[in-house]
Amino acid sequence: SLHKTQNTKSQRFVSLVHRSFIRKNMPQKVDNKRQLLSELLPEENGGGGMSRAAKKRAKKRQKKTQNENNPVMPEKANDKDDKMEKRKKKEGGSKLPTGSDMETIRKPADFDIASDEGGKDDEIALEKTKKQVDAKKRKKKIKGSDHGRDELENDNGEELDAEIEALLSSLTPAEILFDSSHEKQDNPDESNLSEVPPQASENMPDPRQLIRDVTSKTRARILLNSLIQPAGITAREFYKTYWEKKPLLATAHCKNGDGKDSKEILLKHRQRFSSLLTKSKIKKTIATSALRYGQDLNVTRYTTQSDGTKRRITLDLPPTSTADQTEHPIAEPADVWSNFDSGCSIRLLCPHQQSDDVHTLLSALELEFGCMVGSNAYLTPPSNSQGFAPHYDDIEAFVLQLEGSKRWRVYPPMSMTETLPRESSADYTEKDLEGIEPVIDEILEPGDMLYMPRGWIHQAHTPLGKLGASAEHSLHLTVSAMQNWAWVDLLEILMPEALESVARSETSTTLRDGLPRDFLNYMGLMHDVGGEDLPEGLKQASKSIAEGKPEDDSVIDETEKEELRQIERKRKLQARFKEEAKKRIMRVCKEAISMIDAGCDQIGKRFLSDRLPPAYNISEIVLTNESRTNQAAGRIWPNTLCRLARPGIARLVLEDGKAVLYHCGDNSRVYHGNPLSPMEFEVDDAPALETLLTTVEPRWVVVSDLVHGDIEDKMDIAQALYDEGILAIYQAEKPDKSVQVG
After folding, report:
1. I want to staple 410 with a disulfide (CB 3.0 to 4.6 A). Which of 440, 459, 469, 565 is the partner?
2. What pLDDT does 540 receive?
3. How far apart are CA 504 and CA 103, in angstroms?
4. Which whole-number Å values give the CA distances from 512 to 40, 150, 351, 507, in the listed order?
5. What's this model's pTM, rounded to 2 decimal places?
């Protein structure tokens, strides 16, 4: 019945169904590749996921025999290794694999296991692949707007049908991120509400079941879609129209209609963030976790001072400093809640350190945004309370209203220099904002979301309680992204390295040449000879001298002539100096362009150091060493299927003649709590490592297909990454124990 849905809905839905089928049948042992293929693949696939090496072997076997049904014994490991060694020598040694080498990467819906047969199906599949590549190339040539940003987008998640994507986006963040059994202790009514699948119908599947079978990259995109879904736009529209450009408001009023169904929609909307964080959870955390002022929380208030000006005051106890360290005092729960009751706001600086749910949310968004993602939580008392003065931030901010309500006023940047700033602003006063109309003046209620780009000024306070109703506190979570993640941050890494590289050049002394003698006598601001302030007669005379024309004695005398000649000599020296400087600057820029990859590796290492440890979901955990119960369960064999546990969690660089692998698997939820622990390999291991790091869900690669001359080394490399917790493996067949290592 699931396959019949393919004819009425989308092709992509079927790919999800195949993966669901595989997930249910993964524990079964299959002794024959042909049997696995016949069960999992549509007949029209024709082995399109075969590796290039497998296709060559299939064609050779086809030439030897016309009977395609006869079984063919697999090649011995040693023969395979000899062929791989010849291939390496032919391609120039241990260079990193090219795009064509990446055909060895495998797909998950069929484990991309090489078929034992070649023929027309292989040719059709290859032709289909070529057409897809050509289509991608044509697509890249289409220039978009916004300074080329559109063509730099890398959406490497699986493409979903618009109807399927909309269905999945209707799920709450908790339904997207967690298994359906995820407990919601603080919201017992939510489980009752979720008994009815969102937007479910006879023709569409339950999205809560369907979300389990998407890749982690697609799950992250669906999560962003879910956050902005009340605004009625998709993530693609959000990036094109709002990202770094203008605020976006996503409230229940954006989508709520009339009638009985609208009440259910509104109820679910109000509860869609409720599992992330609650006041009761914050109370428990403060009571049990020994949070420290300045490190873990702040207690603040925006109030009128003696001079009549409203300013923010912080009630944190000051830290104590010694010669060795600075110690922040522990926030006593009684003091914290006493200040809260008197009108102070509580800001949790890193709630993801104590909350698994918030950590999981941020980990998924790091995968979507490709940069470090953090969070703060703000608990504000009722009745017109405000904790912070108007200001702007140096982050892309997503405000998720969890409990209560809060009035937000958002103002545009005051100047171009404050647009997408690199640092947050000082506090503004009410006088600073006089005459500036807010572009947004709205009350956020539970389930609402507000996005603000860097540089947009904002302030918020709890509204007064309605007549006859008790006022309530406000709790919101601010998710932050893109801090210190601009082109200037990359160039700050790249340009000094390029300058140092040119300065140490073994082929040129361009930057080591001495500066011209006495250049300070004609360069600098005080030697400016622009001539704008000269009288009109002297300007004409100066122009005649510069052009070599006869001078008019009736206009200037000899003294003025000599002065003009000196000015002209100085201009020529300045122009010559600037030309020489320009040559050297361009030489450094040219070197910087050649070092872009190295600069990206450096900022990539910084990202791995800054980011959170990955929060694996259940389907990822069962494939990594976190689920291993004994040594045998985690053994790597030549026919073991491998891929990186999650995209982007590791990076390979070359340093001091070594292949060095950095990853965030051992990171702490505390910022820089654990230093990076790089793994060193030999340079000839780099091709195999790159294949493993670039093979991500939904693809797989077989250990024996890694580019390396030694099967034992292939197994050792994969085993090292698996033991480190960053490699996912699956044994689709009976282990090939012809090779033993370790």
Report:
1. 440
2. 61
3. 40
4. 65, 41, 52, 12
5. 0.77
